[in-house]
# Entry
Amino acid sequence: MIEALGFEFFRNALIAGLLASIACGVIGSFVVVKRMASLAGGISHAAFGGIGLGYFLGIDPLAGAAAVALGTSTATAWIRMKAHQHLDTLVGAVWATGMAAGILFIYITPGFAPDLFSYLFGNILLVPRETLIVMAILTTGICGIVAILYPRLVAVTFDEEYASVMDLHPDRIMVILLLLTGLTVVMLIQIVGIILVIALLTLPAATARLFSRSMKEMIVGASLLGIVFTTAGIWLSYAFDIPSGATIVIVSACVYFGALPLQRRVLCHRESV
Amino acid sequence: MSRKTPVIEVDHVNLGQNGHLVLEDISLTINEHEFHAIIGPNGGGKTTLLKVILGLIRPDSGTVRVMGGTPHEMRAHLGYVPQFRTFDFQFPISVQDMVTSGRLGHLTGLLRRFSREDTEAAAEAMETMQITHLKDRPIHDISGGERQRAIIARALAGKPSVLLLDEPTVYVDSPTAVRFYDILSQLRESMTIVLVTHDISALSPDVTHISCVNRRLFTHHDNQITEDMIAGAYPCPVDIIAHGVPHRVIPDHDNRVFGGRK
# Structure
């Protein structure tokens, strides 16, 4: 299987997996501790509307996805501030509307119907070099912003009300966090596709959280786990000729569910001491 | 009488939420070095009043002054201990990091990294709350009483002039509560304490002032719970409540009128 490394597409896939894993480890950790998994899912499905819009307007579908994802992130942050009790329902509405809009846009666009399958489930084996460069820039940017805001991000995700009392402007921090989540989601669409985005965003982070004592440990752990999951998934998908995105998610899920009882045992042991 | 410097002045505050009046014409002055307990039934608006004082909720009318300024301006002087149940103790954070995060209100600039002064203030707060030995433990790995002390230590790390606590004894057992009140009476020497609780049987004898909140405020200028306050604030027979306060003398009914209520 080592000979696969001789192919440029395969090396690109591994690098794409690495970059996406780091972004996921960083942003996914905050998404998991802040319990925003469904929100991230809403943003990613809304982005499908952007892909359809991109096709309809004849621009890069991923640019359309990015615009819609960032727009949805900002809108969600704003709604969260105003009426957070309805957020759950709104996420559901945005989720479905995005998908519906995407399908309608693609339907009314004349010419060949695009390969929707690769947007829905991703194809990491088709990531071109230019996309890698964009991903590298995005990942660096995301890590940089999180590093700068780190103490405030931890304080706001841990206790938003107390962050208000300390004048940390949690609303602004949450807007930034949601925008970064939107960017990460768009990046992940290439790798695992819209439907599986939440899995890659949350499974490595949720697994890392089981054994972490601090956000730093969780972020590093989630990034490393993500790298292991994507690399293993890419090898397996190549070796058995099966879809890459789905394979990566199944590998992640197996490790997560396998780790759950281990953590419970650790906790029970601690409680009984 | 030089100690009578007002630190919190609530003046004719009204607040409605979802079409209901939650706080009605509340006026309350809390002076420096008071240990002021705000009691009242669940849903009576105690927590809301505390949030109005903190500037987290803006009243519909009336004003709140904290140390002469708006709550917003004076936040660095306020230490807040929120209700226990609002916390996610599965969050991966150590006791020390959680306590140190209480310093963020004093930091400015883009990066807001902690300095030696911040770590020292956090260490001092953990020492006061007797949790120094737990500092490296994650918060999911310590007991309820220890968590409660960590939450208070976070507020103390900010070196507040006023400490506001919301139902701090709800999730701790009685021996822990007793020790907790020992710590509070020790803190009283360096700060004003405002404590909100529905559990009047758990009030410390060190409390200097008591107010009752049930939409309106019923107050008395010392640490006595009077029949009028109870009758005004609690919708149940006074006798039952009085038996729940074995260590507190309920004075004879003196026909005083509180908050305009007979």
Q: What stands out?
A: The two ends of chain A are 48 Å apart (CA to CA). Residues 30 and 36 of chain A are 8 Å apart (CA to CA).
